[in-house]
């Protein structure tokens, strides 16, 4: 054992170094937040609760039943039931099992009509698995809840037109997708109720 090591042990140098570090951190700015009283800023592209986008003009979901989301989903958590009525494909049931979802957002990117979105809502934990299985009505309700809290007049999800892909390869509806008006639609609904 060297003389330096003996001195360190006698005068408890390592312990004082540790205490000095603790004292230094005591007066530094805290990195933790007091959730749920404080909340982090949610950045663009956050992948939270699933929702089916409601068409602002018809009031129904925008899904056309093309099945692209089910095809690209790596966890196979999307189930769509559709039927053809009057030469038109109608989605009768749309189910997402959020407990199986890995939140990759491939379904959002693949949708040609921008009908699906992963909202910024992340507080939907549950004790039952059944409540994490969203049917079409629940997905539309998730959209309504999300847009009611949205602070802006328009909404546009960055996964609807993902960067890095040549826009000429997107379907026409995806290329022409503009931000969805939110506040105006809510105002129209309020006017209808009055």
From TrEMBL:
Keywords assigned: 4Fe-4S, Cell membrane, Iron, Iron-sulfur, Membrane, Metal-binding, NAD, Quinone, Repeat, Translocase, Ubiquinone
Annotated binding of [4Fe-4S] cluster 2, by residue: 73, 101, 104, 107
GO (cellular component) term, any one: plasma membrane
Main location as per UniProt: membrane
Essential cofactor(s): [4Fe-4S] cluster
Reactions catalysed, as given in the entry: a quinone + NADH + 5 H(+)(in) = a quinol + NAD(+) + 4 H(+)(out)
Record flagged with keyword Metal-binding: yes
Enzyme Commission number: 7.1.1.-
Record PROSITE patterns: 4FE4S_FER_1 (PS00198), 4FE4S_FER_2 (PS51379)
Residue ranges of every copy of the 4Fe-4S ferredoxin-type domain listed in the record: 54-83, 92-121
Compartments, as annotated in UniProt: Cell membrane
Cofactor note: Binds 2 [4Fe-4S] clusters per subunit.
Positions bound to [4Fe-4S] cluster 1: 63, 66, 69, 111
Pfam families: Fer4_7 (PF12838)
GO molecular function: 4 iron, 4 sulfur cluster binding; iron ion binding; NADH dehydrogenase (quinone) (non-electrogenic) activity; quinone binding
Its membrane topology: Peripheral membrane protein
PANTHER family assigned to the protein according to its UniProt record, in alphabetical order: NADH DEHYDROGENASE UBIQUINONE IRON-SULFUR PROTEIN 8, MITOCHONDRIAL, NADH-QUINONE OXIDOREDUCTASE SUBUNIT I 2
Subunit structure: NDH-1 is composed of 14 different subunits. Subunits NuoA, H, J, K, L, M, N constitute the membrane sector of the complex.
Entry similarity comment: Belongs to the complex I 23 kDa subunit family.
Function, in words: NDH-1 shuttles electrons from NADH, via FMN and iron-sulfur (Fe-S) centers, to quinones in the respiratory chain. The immediate electron acceptor for the enzyme in this species is believed to be ubiquinone. Couples the redox reaction to proton translocation (for every two electrons transferred, four hydrogen ions are translocated across the cytoplasmic membrane), and thus conserves the redox energy in a proton gradient.
Protein name: NADH-quinone oxidoreductase subunit I
Organism: Thermodesulfovibrio aggregans
Gene for this chain: nuoI
């Amino acid at each position: 054992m060297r003389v330096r090591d003996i001195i360190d042990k006698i005068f408890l140098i390592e312990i004082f170094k540790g205490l000095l570090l603790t004292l230094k951190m005591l007066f530094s700015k805290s990195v933790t937040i007091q959730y749920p009283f404080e909340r982090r800023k949610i950045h663009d592209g956050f992948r939270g609760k699933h929702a089916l986008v409601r068409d602002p003009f018809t009031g129904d979901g925008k899904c056309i039943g093309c099945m692209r989301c089910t095809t690209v989903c790596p966890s196979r958590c999307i189930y769509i039931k559709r039927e053809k009525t009057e030469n038109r494909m109608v989605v009768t049931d749309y189910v997402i099992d959020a407990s199986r979802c890995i939140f990759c957002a491939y379904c959002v990117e693949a949708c040609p009509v921008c009908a699906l979105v992963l909202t910024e809502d992340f507080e939907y934990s549950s004790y039952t698995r059944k409540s994490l299985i969203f049917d079409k009505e629940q997905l539309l309700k998730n959209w309504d809840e999300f847009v009611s809290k949205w602070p802006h007049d328009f909404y546009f999800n960055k996964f609807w037109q993902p960067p890095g892909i040549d826009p000429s390869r997107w379907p026409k509806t995806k290329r022409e997708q503009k931000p969805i008006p939110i506040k105006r639609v809510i105002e129209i609904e309020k006017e209808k109720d009055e």
